[in-house]
Amino acid sequence: MIQKIKAADRFHIESDWLSAYWLFSFDRYYDPSNVNFGPLRVFNHDTIAPQSGFPTHSHREMEIVTYILEGELTHADSTGGRGLIHAGEVQRMTAGTGVAHSEINATKDSVRLLQMWVTPAKSGLLPSYEQKEFTPEDRAGRLFPIASGDKAGGAVHINQDATFYVSALKPGDSVEHALKVGRRAFVYLMAGEIELNGRRIDGLVSVHGSGGRHPGRVGTGRRRCACPPRSPACSAVPS
Predict the structure, then answer these.
(1) What's the whole-model pTM score?
(2) Using CB atoms within 10 A of its CB, is residue 143 exposed (0-12), middle (13-18) or buried (19+)?
(3) What value, to the nearest 5°, has the Cα angle with vertex 39 and ends 35 and 44?
(4) Helix (H) or strand (E) holding 14
(5) Full DSSP string of 16-61
(6) Which domains occur in the chain, in start order?
(7) Are 137 and 159 contacting, i.e. CB atoms less than 8 angstroms apart?
(8) What is the CB neighbour count within 10 angstroms for residue 205?
(9) Mind listing the pLDDT tens digit for each residue in 187-226?
């Protein structure tokens, strides 16, 4: 079964400094029927205005992956992690037993990012931080892992049997991933249109699907970027 969620159906919050779209129940948005997809607990698409951001706040027992789409974010956390996160870079923070951090846009331009929270495979982990840079060429025409429980392809490490991929496809490109029985997949379409297992998908949408015996195949007439996870109940997807 495939469930399609259109961009307009996402929860949206707008303030003087933040424009955010949330796919799952989060903060002031509460929907008990839409809390998670396997271990994927949060999937937020945020735009942060210049000279603003998230002040210091705390988390526990969560793997937090931030992927910068555009702009530059200043990060600081209680593990000693400090630095700038640029477009194309991925940050992983294991909240574990507890961590405090801030994410500030100190520039004159807006920052666009995706942030994904994944429940860890076990609790009580020591808080930690990791960041890596990837290029547009890395994701061109293929599924490229950026965060993974098995460190696939040099991705940042998350403490869960899950993998996030990104992909940018030109007209006529296609990618394929074998989704095993009992696994599930999540695809987030950033732009353009694709064909997912024969089904046309366009606009900015997310697609949830359960595993089967056939590989997932994605082709496109226009470029697109997606970010899907894999987990104990959730497999890496045709991104």
Answers:
(1) 0.87
(2) buried
(3) 60
(4) strand 11-14
(5) SSEEEEESS-BTTB--TTSS-BTTEEEEEEEEE-TTEEEEEEEE-S
(6) 11-134 (2.60.120.10)
(7) no
(8) 20
(9) 999 888 888 888 888 776 667 666 543 445 666 543 333 4
